[in-house]
Amino acid sequence: MLNFLRRLIRNPIVVAVLLLGGAWWVHAQTTSYGPYRVTGYNYTDRSIALFTIDGFGAGGSNAHESGGGGGTVCCMSVPRNRKTWHIKIVYELTQEQYKKDLPNDVYETDIPVPSLPNKHDGYIEFHFLPDRKIDAKWVELPTKPHIPNTN
Fold it and tell me: Which of 126, 105, 124, 129 is nearest to 43 (CA)?
C-alpha cells in the first residue's frame, strides 16, 4: 500500500489533479459573501406587503408601517463581484384597490450593492424612502428606524 501511494505522488498528473481539485474547492467555498440578515424600513405613505432582493424574499421583514416599521429576515448571500441588486416591491392594497378587486401595485428597480466591510456577517438595511428611492447599507447591528443621510 505504501509503495502504491509513493508511485501516485510521483505521478505529475495525479499531483495536478489533486491541486486543481483543492483550488476548485476553495473557490467554491468563497463564491459569495454572507450570510447577512436583512432589515427593511419603510418611510413612505404606502404600506409594503413584501419585497425581494434578486429573488430573495424579504417580505417577512415587516416593512409594513409607513414612517418606520422594520423587522429582520435571515439569511441572504451576496455573490462576489455583484454590483447591483434587483429590488421588487409589492405594495399593500389601498382601500380603492381592495373595493374594486384590483391587483397590488408593483415597483421594480436596480440599486447598487453597498460596501460590505464584513464579508461574513452583519445586517443589510433597506430604507424605502419617498419618491421610490431605496437606500441599502451594511451595518454591524440593526439600527432604529431613521431616514438615512439626514441629521
Answer: 129
